[in-house]
Amino acid sequence: MDQKQVYIETYGCQMNVADTEVVLSIMGSNSFGITDDASKADVIFINTCSVRDNAEARVFQRLATLKQYKKLNPGVVIGVLGCMAERLRTELIDKRNLVDVVVGPDEYRKLPELVDEAFAGHKGIAVKLSRVENYDDILPLRTDGIGAWISVMRGCDKFCTFCVVPFTRGRERSRSLGSVIGEVERLSAEGYKEITLLGQNVNSYHDGTNDFPDLMAAAAAVDRSIRVRFMTPHPQDVSDKLIGAIASTPNICASIHLPIQSGSNRVLKQMNRTYTIEQYLALVATIRAAIPGVALSTDIIAGFPGETDDDHRATIDTLMRVRYDGAFMFKYSPRENTKAWDMGDDVSEEVKVRRLTDIIEVQNTIATEINALLVGSTVEVLVEKVSAKSSDEWMGRTDNNKFVVFPKAGAAIGDMVNVKIHKANSATLMGTIV
Ligand code: 5AD
Ligand code: SF4
Q: What band does 1 get if pLDDT is binned at 50, 70 and 90?
């Protein structure tokens, strides 16, 4: 058999998951086959993340273990894709003899050619960032489930001082509304039940004519039985128009991820987050008044340069005021080339760990309290997949993004079912179909 097989592993955010589907589509239409078994692969791609140091460390560990596949099959081509390719470039080829191709997020169209050259023994690098590449014409190769990610814009112009993304993914650019809607129509015809519009800064989407609320409204109008979600908005660009679109459109889900990063105005300023706590809290109040039952989640960074105990208390205080349904909580990780890198990483590891632990404890208590209020109620759930803990149970989500686990009881993936909640913890509701 001479069709070469590609295997790909994905690290990091949902943008990478969506990019992996683009890469598989490009390889697939260039006569490569796709395998989910690395030991059978002729090409092994690792799609990487640079957002925190531990994400990169995981990839380096994985690269070390990939040596076994080179031993098994010396002809195998190994490629590093995505943000680490962009950030580390030649270092990956020079210092890691193992890697044959290094390709950044805007150069995936070159992959088939670079891989062919690598089979002939030539290492290849393509890491130019583009102001226009948005893979508009490439139909992502989606593999599983009833939910689809649609990347609608790429890049970020916000330059939060801690963040490497503007450097690894370049400037903002949006696909045309028409091409996104065409994709939603195809997904509807294929039976998908949920779509998530994706972008590093999704609500700054603009195709020259249409803004993000226009896009959301148009996507939701394609098929009213499809749930529409979006990731990740920046608080600065959450307009009244967007809130209005969510509030007035039943199939746009009532959950918003609204990264706050810190509860201290001083730190927010140092982070270049462009809002004050007062503005953020006013936005939260507007959202909650307009969208009944809306769930809010957030991202928090502990131990940003110069963060004092007072700043940390302000973050805890804000968590208690907002009462988020969920949060992703991180220790600050210095990234080279960012403005914060030059501020020095002056909060000790010990203090970072203590503050992060505080934040996690407070947030888990709040989420547990919020979810406990749902015990005894009946919620509507879209059945998504088999529960990770038990093959006899389904996992699904409510409109406002709560994870629900329940015995299968004859329901099938893609069904909308009513589940009576018996138990809840900080992350999951447990119940039975009624
Ligand atoms: N250190 C820690 N967390 C970071 N994030 C982004 N950059 C860093 C960093 N250097 C977090 C932010 C962002 C999320 C995707 O990752 O909270 O919202
Ligand atoms: Fe990074 Fe800020 Fe852009 Fe988000 S908005 S990708 S945190 S620079």
A: low
Q: Is residue 249 a contact partner of residue 217, using CB atoms and an 8 Å limit?
A: yes
> Lowest-pLDDT range, 144-153, 218-227, 364-373?
144-153
Above 80 in pLDDT, residue 394?
A: yes
H or E segment and range at residue 45: strand 43-48
Question: How many angstroms separate the alpha carbon of residue 408 from the centre of ligand 2?
Answer: 40
Q: pLDDT tens digit string along 338-376?
A: 999 999 999 999 999 999 999 999 999 999 999 999 999
Q: Is residue 131 a part of any domain in this protein?
A: no
Residue 232 CA: nearest ligand 2 atom is: 4
State mean pLDDT over 142-147: 86
* 365 and 419 share one domain: no
Residue among 163, 201, 359 whose CB has most ligand 1 atoms within 8 A, to mutate? 163
Claim to verify: residue 243 and residue 259 sit in the same structural domain: no
Question: How far is CA 177 from each of CA 43, 153, 156, 196, rounded to the nearest angstrom?
Answer: 34, 11, 19, 15
Ligand 1 closest atom vs CA 162: 10
What is the DSSP secondary structure assignment for residue 40, as one 8-state letter?
G
**Nearest atom (ligand 1) to Cα of 13:** 15
pTM more than 0.85: yes
Ligand 1 center to 162 CA (angstroms): 7
- Residues flanking ligand 2, CB < 6 Å: 156, 158-160, 163, 165-166, 200-201, 234
Q: Are residues 335 and 273 in the same domain?
A: yes
Ligand 2 center to 50 CA (angstroms): 13
pLDDT in tens, 55-89: 999 999 999 999 899 888 999 999 999 999 999 98
Taking residues 24-29, what's their average pLDDT? 97
Ligand nearest to the CA of 305: 1
The range of the structural domain enclosing residue 386 comes to 378-433
- The DSSP code for 204 is G
pLDDT at 2 over 90: no
Q: Are residues 402 and 344 in the same domain?
A: no
Residue 419 to residue 426: CA distance in whole angstroms:
18
Q: Which of 343, 372, 401 is the last residue of a domain?
A: 372
Task: Report yes or no: 40 and 6 within 8 Å, Cβ to Cβ.
Answer: no
Phi, then psi, of 136 in degrees rounded to 5 = -55, -35
> Final residue of a domain: which of 253, 284, 318?
253
Residue 156 C-alpha to ligand 2 middle, in angstroms?
6
Same-domain status, 186 and 240:
yes
340 lines ligand 1 (CB under 6 A): no
**Mutate which of 13, 50, 301 to test ligand 1's pocket (most atoms within 8 Å of Cβ)?**
301
Is 133 domain-assigned? no
Which residue type sits at 162?
F
